[in-house]
Design goal:
membrane, transmembrane helix, Glycosyl transferase, elongated, transmembrane, MFS_trans_sf, Growth Hormone, Chain: A, mainly alpha, single chain
Length: 206
């Protein structure tokens, strides 16, 4: 059961990396109708994602100290799902408000990126350090585990970039893709919580 649990954690970390880059890439499409698609628009998006991920890594590491479990891990995915959904539901009114009040597209795009992506990306950033904590069983192999985890997560990010940009945006509306990411994160979170319950039940009756 332990090996299966570890495989699940790697899969979830892969999926989180996929989702992060997919959503970041869609950020350009979401902001483009209001602020264009020039280099400073992408600069705003990348800045917000990098900054929010850094906070997420910090918070995820702190959260993992206190009795880490798959249930709490799954809860992060559920929270991320809830935070991602408003991107699809409220992006247009938020950007319309910012667009009409801030003339400079540099600062408008930066504020819009912050309003839409800052909080959900913080939550998504919490997943990687929490994953490492769940996988590490002894300090001797902690570096190897962390390296493997970040390899899997970054591989997910690369595939998320390619698949979103090459295929998803051609087949689906941007909001539909965002909702798809939110639903996927919710399913993954529920899966982690379910596996945690099965693991506890197995230990109880072992």
């Amino acid at each position: 059961m332990l090996n299966k649990t570890n495989a699940l954690i790697y899969f979830l970390a892969f999926s989180s990396g996929f989702s992060i880059m997919g959503i970041e890439l869609l950020g350009g499409r979401i902001l483009a109708p209001f602020f264009g698609s020039s280099v400073h628009i992408w600069g705003s998006i990348i800045t917000v994602f990098m900054l929010s991920l850094s906070f997420g890594y910090l918070l995820g590491g702190k959260l993992s100290i206190k009795r880490p479990s798959l249930a709490k891990y799954g809860s992060i995915f559920l929270l991320a799902s809830i935070m991602v959904l408003p991107i699809a539901l409220f992006a247009n009114p938020i950007m319309e408000f910012i667009f009409t009040h801030i003339e400079d597209s540099r600062y408008g795009s930066l504020l819009a990126s912050t309003a839409l992506f800052f909080v959900p990306t913080i939550i998504l950033g919490m997943i990687s350090p929490y994953s490492v904590r769940l996988l590490v069983t002894d300090s001797e192999h902690s570096g190897q585990v962390a390296g493997g985890l970040y390899f899997v997560s970054t591989l997910g990010s690369a595939l998320g970039t390619i698949i979103t940009s090459f295929y998803m945006v051609l087949a689906f509306d941007v909001n539909a893709i965002i909702i798809g990411f939110a639903l996927t994160l919710a399913v993954l979170g529920l899966l982690a919580i379910l596996v945690n319950k099965l693991f506890l039940a197995e230990r109880r009756y072992a």
